[in-house]
Amino acid sequence: MNLNNIYELRWKVLPPLAGVAMIGMAALALVTAPTEVIEGDVQRLLYVHLPSALASYFAFSVTAVCSILFLLKRDFKWDSAAQGAAVVGLIFTLLTLITGSLWGKPIWGVYWQWDPRITTTLILFLIFSAYLIARKSSSLDSDKSARFCSIYAIIGFLDIPLIHMSVRWWRTLHPQPIIAKLNPALPDEMLLVTLFSVLAVILVAAWFITLGVETELLSQRLLKLRAIAKTNISEKS
Amino acid sequence: MERTEKTMQDLAIETNCLTRRYDGLPALNKVSIQIASGSRIALLGNNGSGKTTLLTILSTLLQSSGGSARILGYDVAKKTTALRNIIGVIRHQPMLYENFSPIEDLELFAKIYQVPDSDERIKKLLTSVEIWHLRDEMIGTFSRGQKQRLMIAKSLLHKPKVLLLDEPEIGLDQDGLRVLDQLILMNAEEGSTPVTVLAATHREERVDTWATGFVRLERGQIIETALSKDNL
Amino acid sequence: MNLPTQLQIGGKLLNANLKQAWRDKTNWITAGMFAVTALLLYSFAFNLTTGLVRNLLPGVIWTVFLFSGIFATGQSFQHDRQNGILDALKISPIHPMTIYIAKTLANILMLLLIEFALLLGATILFSEPLFTPQLLLIVTIGTIGYTALSTLLSAINLDQNNGGLLLPVLALPLLVPLLIASVEATSASLQQEAGTAPWILLLSLFTIWSTAIATLMFPLAD
Predict the structure, then answer these.
(1) pTM of the full predicted structure?
(2) ipTM of the complex model
(3) How far away is chain C from the Cα of B232, in angstroms, using its nearest Cα?
(4) Does residue C172 contact residue C66 with C-beta atoms inside 8 Å?
(5) Cβ(C65)–Cβ(C59) under 8 Å?
(6) CB A223 to CB B23 under 8 A?
(7) Is B111 within 8 Å of chain C by CB?
(8) How far is C23 from chain A (nearest CA, A)?
(9) Angle (nearest 5°) at CA B90 between B86 and B92
(10) pLDDT digits (tens, 9 = 90+) for C202-212
(11) Run of H or E residues at B29
């Protein structure tokens, strides 16, 4: 897979596609989708909340795959790609948590509930924040740092299902008084809107990922150019 | 880079456009050298010229950013067991267990390298570097010079064929330098195949006494070489 | 190098690590002191002198174990790095996995020593049956699990500016399943409930998973 193809996608294909999809999603979510009987209009946050969650998993999958590719091929492009995708993943994870809170307050009366999915999302946020902090605290071309963080990203990604399972078991032992399902059975119209929203948000996420990846690749190039400039200056002086 | 008639076997150390970057800056910039078996080459250059980087890559402790390096035909990047059995290394920093005695440290590494008749060999080496009387003392109490002598002994423990030394003279007094010359710089191990030595050094005035050639680096590039005795 | 030789050398290296740990006890004693201090702090903070002890004690114990254990494992490679021994081992023909396993086993043994001592002390302090075979088993399995992971993470020194705080930040989120399983297993064991076995099973599975992954990943970190 040639990373240069991503540049093509980024300018020519993804933005218009994502833009149209988002407009469509806004229309569908705000207007067309029926109002939920019990929860009211706040329920429409589902159309952002669920797709954001999926988008974050998508982004972190990209990080994990790129990390594996980096360890196999030792080409720093994959390390840059992994970081770019991780940033996008964190953005969507944060969005998931915020929309979840905003939705939760009117419905449950609380901003937070120790639901397995939300809790796992929070831990996911911590893991990949730690990943970026660890990676950014070293030089961009440090192969030691890149190797270590790739390993960490892979372990972190593989750990997520385990975290989810264990939190779920923990919650069955310690149920909280307020019990509310995040995703009750959806009538067909809502399901369709949800699916469309997922598609739209994933397109946006894909676009953001290409932007993130290119930012990281440019940072690497900047590093090299700065170094060359430094060498030239010191040679002339 | 013209290749001479040296075959792979004659070449103890061979690098091809070896490059290593830190923060974008090349510490080593397309360095290509060929060192024949049995030569003793001085690696010269100011601080920051890339000597340590080169030696560290050859010791398999650092990955290159580009190019390749071989020791006695083995690719350094692959770090095979065979390669690691034939190299002996001295770095800037002594690689010793501060809480052990010389005997304990060397015994452990003799086991790791599967050195035959280890007790005898350890005694012989510690005697040659003249610290046999300190054999049961904690290494942490040693002076820099004593640790360096121990490092000399440790690097020779498994009878390596190629020695990669980064400023082996650090901390050594006149006697210590004599020991260094006797054991490494001026003599191959008696009886066995000739040992190749690549030693970085700042003590240029001594180079004539032991080296059969030299490589001078500046800012990661070779600026001068003389790799056969005729040119010295 | 074949497997029996590697095992033999691994054994020698394990001995060397233990000898080193014993001769340079400061690191481990500090970890032990931190554990005791933290336990006392929790006693005041949660008012553990009342009858609520049984509910809170498992959580208190495991957070104390994790923090002091991760700190201690972080320091263990640091010494080897500083005196160049890690490099000497990497240059030698020993397989990287052997280096890792020998270091991890040494860490586990030292941590178990500290943890068992702490459990004995806590038994006296809180009058709770904390020194039972079942509980010791749970602590052993859990310790293997978290030590395997944190030893792997401490193997590469990325921590120049963070004063050692980066390692817990990296390790603890990954260890949530282990923490949950350990606390639940400890709690069930303490209350002598029937539900202990599934938690022990879960704990064992996570430990096996983290040990396997850490062992496989260590050579890649080289």
Answers:
(1) 0.86
(2) 0.88
(3) 32
(4) yes
(5) no
(6) yes
(7) yes
(8) 30
(9) 150
(10) 899 999 999 99
(11) strand B25-36
